[in-house]
Design goal:
By secondary structure, the chain is an alpha+beta fold. The chain folds into two domains: 71 residues, Glutaredoxin, CATH 3.40.30.10; 116 residues, Glutathione S-transferase Yfyf (Class Pi), Chain A, domain 2. 55% of the residues lie in helices and 8% in strands. The chain is built from nine helices and four strands. It has a four-stranded mixed beta sheet with strand order 2-1-3-4, with helices on one face. Strand 3 and strand 4 form a beta hairpin. The protein is globular and about 50 Å long. Glutathione (GSH) binds next to helix 1 and helix 3. The site of glutathione (GSH) has 12 residues, from helix 1 and helix 3.
């Protein structure tokens, strides 16, 4: 059985948990305290980050790579599709999440300076416009639920909690997608989302 080292409150770990759940593949869960990670974490990942999976000495780290590995290892139901064009599109979307979206997302969440917030929002908007174009007429990014949706999900479901990003600012196709992500069983039941629901103020509806 595959062992997953993860933390409930880690959105990157949520990506991997969601893949396991979508595949209905059981795993051995090792929960890590992010404030005091055990030595094992830096032994398995020199960067000292979770998620990490390990099976019979074979180790994979980095949430996007683990997710694709799991899709290769457990092909049904496919979260990458078998069409080269669609697989490339999914990878481009995941790359855009990691390279273009997460930086300004965290800046907007962390800074209290209005000027910095404005800059971060300005950097997020082109990503939301890109996603809107991809989503046009579709429930999920590729039509059917895919790895691209999972890659964005942990951050998208809390997008409307960021300062100055209420329903007026979030384009309609993205707002509808956020609702679809929240409603997806594997996402809605994940401890990351459940923890946020329990901890934070009621959500402003995005749709
Ligand atoms: N690029 C990594 C990021 C993983 C990451 O940042 N994990 C955080 C928790 S959300 C972590 O392990 N932090 C522990 C630390 O910084 O010591 C991935 O996609 O897996």
């Amino acid at each position: 059985m595959i062992t997953l080292y993860h933390a409930k409150e880690c959105p990157f770990c949520a990506r991997v948990r969601i893949v396991f759940e979508e595949k209905r593949v059981p795993y051995k869960s090792v929960e890590v305290d992010l404030n005091a990670p055990p030595e094992e974490v830096s032994r398995l990942n020199p960067r000292g980050l979770v998620p990490i999976i390990e099976e019979n000495g074979f180790v994979v780290r980095e949430s996007a790579i683990i997710s694709e590995y799991l899709d290769d290892r457990f092909p049904e139901p496919s979260l990458m599709t078998w069409l080269p064009e669609k697989r490339a599109k999914i990878r481009l979307l995941i790359e855009s999440c990691d390279a273009d979206f997460l930086g300004p997302f965290y800046r907007l969440r962390q800074t209290r300076r209005e000027e910095e917030q404005e800059k971060a929002r300005a950097a997020i908007m082109p990503v939301l416009e890109y996603l809107s174009r991809e989503l046009k007429g579709k429930k999920f990014l590729l039509g059917n639920f895919s790895m691209a949706d999972i890659a964005f999900a942990p951050w998208m479901i809390v997008l409307d909690r960021l300062p100055g990003l209420g329903r007026e600012q979030i384009p309609e196709p993205v707002a509808a997608w956020i609702e679809a992500l929240r409603a997806r069983e594997t996402i809605g039941s994940d401890p990351y989302w459940q923890g946020l629901l329990a901890r934070e103020e009621p959500l402003k509806r995005a749709g």
